[in-house]
Specification:
- The structure is a single chain.
- The chain has helices at residues 22-33, 48-55, 67-80, 115-128, 145-148, 178-184, and strands at residues 38-42, 59-64, 85-88, 101-106, 129-141, 154-156, 159-161, 172-176, 188-201, 204-217.
- It has 220 residues and is an alpha/beta fold.
- The chain has one domain (18-217): Vaccinia Virus protein VP39 (Rossmann fold).
- Strands 1, 2, 3, 4, 5, 6, 7, 8, 9 and 10 form a ten-stranded mixed beta sheet that branches.
- The longest helix has 14 residues, at 67-80.
- The model has no long low-confidence stretch (mean pLDDT 94).
- This is Demethylrebeccamycin-D-glucose O-methyltransferase.
- Its EC number is 2.1.1.164.
């Protein structure tokens, strides 16, 4: 299993990463209706989703590998007067007790590893979720240009190392297809999997495809 490598936020255009994604509003409302209380923002980055979930009234824990991201979230939470339990840590070895969370929100984070790492992360999520708890996550698609045509070096049959200059340089990326996802989430009741093609962003053509997964842990 490859060692985890966090984003270098100092090299990023941070403004897009300070706004919650559209899906987070839907999930927050869904989890309110399910009466979830304890939520983990796994790979919290600069903190946009931790802040959102805390404003919705959830008891939020946040974890990220980046000291820069964690410090940004701490300052943001203090400014908003929000009580968020924030830690620096690795998604492959979560510092939480078993059955700690009703929901785990992991947006564009699980893919930042290799095949063995992805399996380990899913096992850790299973461990910290309560029976009947849910995960909402995303995974890079094997139909993306980065995987099919970029020529980036491969660590294994599913994993490439990003060589583009910027905050993700040298970060491993695990890519999946639907069968991979159903295998990884075999202990979950998969409610929905969407395959999204980001073909045009900010006046530029793109070839970025992602899977978005919402699943409930069966606790077998």
């Amino acid at each position: 299993m490859v060692d985890s490598k966090g984003w270098e936020w100092e090299k990023a255009n941070q403004s897009p990463w300070l706004k919650p994604c559209e899906d987070s509003y839907y999930i927050a409302n869904k989890w309110l209706q399910l009466r979830f209380k304890n939520v983990l923002d796994l790979g919290s980055g600069l903190g946009r989703h931790s802040i959102l979930f805390a404003k919705y009234g959830f008891n939020v824990s946040a974890i990220d590998l980046s000291d820069y991201g964690v410090n940004n979230l701490k300052q943001w939470a203090d400014k908003e007067n929000l009580d968020i339990h924030i830690k620096v840590g690795d998604m492959t070895d979560l510092p939480y007790d078993d059955n700690s969370f009703d929901g785990v929100f992991a947006y564009h984070v699980i893919s930042h590893t290799d095949t063995a790492g992805a399996k380990r992360v899913i096992n850790e999520i299973e461990r910290v979720l309560k029976p009947g708890g849910e995960i909402y996550t995303s995974m890079c698609s094997k139909e993306s240009w980065d995987f099919k045509k970029s020529g980036y070096p491969k660590l294994d049959e599913n994993t490439v190392i990003n060589k583009e200059e910027g905050p993700e340089k040298d970060v491993p990326h695990f890519y999946a297809d639907l069968d991979d996802i159903l295998d990884l989430f075999a202990n979950f009741e998969v409610e929905k999997v969407r395959h999204v093609d980001y073909c045009y962003i900010d006046s530029q053509k793109q070839d970025c495809k992602y899977y978005y997964i919402n699943a409930r842990y069966l606790y077998l």
